[in-house]
Automatic annotation (TrEMBL):
Alphabetized UniProt keyword annotations: Hydrolase, Metal-binding, Zinc
InterPro entries, per the entry: AstE_AspA_cat (IPR055438), N-alpha-Ac-DABA-like (IPR043795), N-alpha-Ac-DABA_deacetylase (IPR053138)
Residues covered by the Succinylglutamate desuccinylase/Aspartoacylase catalytic domain: 51-236
The protein, known as: Ectoine utilization protein EutE
Key word Zinc present: yes
Keyword Hydrolase: yes
Any one GO molecular function term: hydrolase activity, acting on ester bonds
Cofactor(s) demanded: Zn(2+)
Pfam families from the UniProt entry: AstE_AspA_cat (PF24827)
Length: 343
């Protein structure tokens, strides 16, 4: 367990020094016509057997990404402190206004939590949540997983999502954790890809931090849930936070994931307004120059649709969900395959 800093945020129902299962919430204070004289609760669970390593599991960073939220609530209900040799902190609805509004960003201040770290304890609601997590929860953790999915606007291949770096030791630990998760893909991106993200905050703090993209489309993918229900306990056991089941028997062989990389040439971007028609499927292998999408013009009835080609060889890793597009809309992303031996 890492040395704990003095807490700056306020919590109800949570005492980090206690063992057992505690259910409470963090306080976000915001004075407007709705929230004046109240707090905006950020649900929080702390499940602990006492001293030992600590895992921080975060979901609901974006309110319309549901697989992680379902997993977090399930873990809170089912995880027994007696099975632990440390502590699991679960934040199931990190940007709780966005979760309640079924929106990517907060409907109160328009804040995108995954662009807001390290946050501002004296700022708006989203900045306060980022400050609470980065200032009060992150320093306690030895391992962090931020569970995302494609949300309402896109569908991802279900994958562990890892930033390169920040050093050889943490990179090796990230690769191990990503494989243990057992998802069919691992998406590799540039170091500190989004400077205001929880992944970047974890890297800058020197804490083992990974993320996920668990399908999406504004719904719940049961196959991604099934893989994560096996993968999360496997990681917690490997990190020495959860006891291995005595009747677990022979260890199940984990299939080697496919490693993909998002690069600057990955997005296929519309230059027109109209109706998006995909010409390929999610997970399909494509080659540079291959037609992958069309956009049909709404008002120009005699105009042929505009066709778009892949700029690189790779796998269709992300697909836009809404059909209506505008210039600048990313239609899909193509991710080149990586040789795992080169990582």
């Amino acid at each position: 367990m890492r040395p704990r800093t003095k807490a700056a945020a306020s919590f109800t129902g949570i005492d980090f020094s206690l063992t057992g299962k505690q259910l409470g919430y963090g306080h976000v204070v915001h004075s407007d016509n709705v929230h004046d004289g109240s707090v905006i609760p950020v649900p929080l669970a702390v499940i602990s057997s006492g001293p030992g390593p600590v895992a921080l599991l975060v979901a609901g960073t974006h309110g319309d990404e549901y697989e992680g939220q379902v997993l977090a609530h399930e873990l809170i209900r089912e995880l027994d402190p007696e099975r632990l040799t440390g502590t699991v902190i679960v934040v199931p609805a990190a940007n709780s206004p966005a979760v309640r509004g079924a929106a990517r960003v907060s409907p109160i201040d328009g804040g995108n939590l995954n662009r807001s770290y390290p946050g501002n304890a004296g700022g708006g609601p989203t900045g306060q949540v980022a400050a609470m997590i980065s200032g009060d929860l992150l320093p306690r953790a030895d391992f962090v997983i931020d569970m995302h999915s494609g949300g309402s606007n896109s569908t991802y291949l279900p994958c562990a999502f890892i930033y390169r770096g920040p050093d050889e030791k943490l990179w090796t630990a990230k690769l191990r954790a990503a494989k243990l998760l057992g998802l069919p893909y691992v998406m590799v991106v540039a170091p500190l890809l989004e400077p205001g993200s929880l992944s970047s905050a974890g890297d800058l703090a020197g804490i083992l931090t990974i993320s996920t993209e668990l399908s999406g489309s504004g719904t719940v993918d049961r196959h991604a849930l099934g893989a994560m229900r096996q993968g999360l306990p496997r990681i917690l056991t490997d990190l020495g936070i959860m006891r291995e089941e005595s009747d677990a028997g022979t260890t199940t062989q984990i299939a080697e994931p496919q490693f993909l990389e998002l690069v600057p040439e990955s997005p296929v971007t519309s230059t027109a307004a109209g109706l998006f028609e995909p010409l390929v499927d999610l997970g399909e292998t494509v080659r540079s120059g291959q037609p992958v999408a069309r956009v049909h013009f709404i008002d120009e009835l005699d105009r042929a649709p505009r066709e778009y080609q892949a700029r690189i060889n790779g796998v269709v890793a992300i697909m836009r969900r809404p059909t209506l597009v505008a210039p600048g809309s990313h239609l899909l992303y193509i991710a080149p395959l990586l040789d795992s031996d080169s990582l």
